[in-house]
Design goal:
Rossmann fold; five-stranded mixed β-sheet; 4 helices; 42% helix; alpha/beta
Amino acid sequence: MVKHERIAVFVAGLAALLAVAASAVAADLKEGFFTTNDGYRLHYIEAGSGAPLVMIPGWSQTAAQFKHQISGLSDQYHVIALDMRGHGESEKPDHGYRIHRLSKDVYDFLSGRGLTGVTLAGHSMGCSVIWGYWELFGRERLA
């Protein structure tokens, strides 16, 4: 076998391995929607059981960015990632994009699902949403 043929076989094998790994990550994910108190349907993905860990993506990002983290953490936690309003598969209203409204959306999700003892994890602007949550609701529903 010539060197470039071995490289092609290696690349094809690697692609097959990555495809199998990606399908394993997606296989255990469940999807759902919830309605905020101002009437918008927001999307989330989840997997696992145990203490709830809710992941909040940054601006212009979606819950899908957390699929690998969900895969790695769902053996110990009930991991949930949200598509914030205007992002991913969530509704895209003309308004409601201030930090406090996004924080209220998180509260609506937690209370609507009856979740308590929650750990919040944010990426980029998702951290600002968490700070807004603490300002509005303190430790209510949090671990």
